[in-house]
Amino acid sequence: MRPGPLNLITDVPSLRVGNAQDEKLKSGVTVLTADVPFVASCAVMGGAPGTRETDLLEPDRLVQAVDALVLSGGSAFGLDAASGVMTGLKKAGRGFQVGEVRVPLVPTAILFDLLNGGDKNWNRNPYQDLGRAAFENVGEKFRIGSVGAGTGALTATLKGGLGSASLLLPNGSVVGALVAANPMGTVTTPGERHFWAAPFEIDGEFGGIGPDPRGGLGVALPSPKHADLGERANTTIAVVATDARLTKAEAKRMAVAAHDGIGRAIVPAHMPGDGDLVFSVATGSAETDDEDFPLLCHAAALCLSRAIARGIYHATPASADILSCWRSA
Asked: Is the pLDDT of residue 231 over 60?
């Protein structure tokens, strides 16, 4: 397996991603969509998720495909980003047909970035506009790091960020991941240089420092460098995708397996204060055999670990930051 030409989730054919952010707010929105609806599911393993329309992604629900997925900052305020995306989709004539009406379906997950040094003293919720702007910006190429939903993301010791990665599988199918990493845990071992995800790095894509050679790592919980802000809610929200043809039940299992990628890249992960969630997407343009499915799940976890590290590696400094970036730590 090797990364796709972009090493982004948009190496999966037909997928497009758009970002929008407000630097003063220190928050933003990321949207994933395609030209036609796609099969999707999700798995939640954090103790404090914030979501919209995720129940319809369960395998036994009526709807078999959705129009877009949203990752947003802003905690519960960020759920309003879906309204902006729905407006854009409605204008494009997209949505689930109900009689003469089309209703765009936009499952959404949010992360908590309300205590990151940004100006949150707004009078009108900004996330609907950010959602619409992100939708209007969708394309195959997009930036990672301190953009979109990763704009104001933090880890325990470093700035978080928006990351993405992909893999081309031997059977010709493609798997990719997109993540806004804002965890309670660390993405690096003590000293902030070695990524937990280092064993899965390909071609120096997040610095090429390699694994930490020390033993006994992860025994002690990290001491957050932003502890003066009080207890903080956290979340890592992600999408894993493939062009393979999957049922909703198979997509659900891929989302569950992909959570291993969070556990390998963040220590600790899936904590009571985290809202860790993984969406899964299958566009169905590639024919695969049943025996290929375990490899798809494995590749999804690998991509997600790499995407988390890449998001932090590409984070950039901004005014009023409360944590430093990996490159300047």
From this structure: no
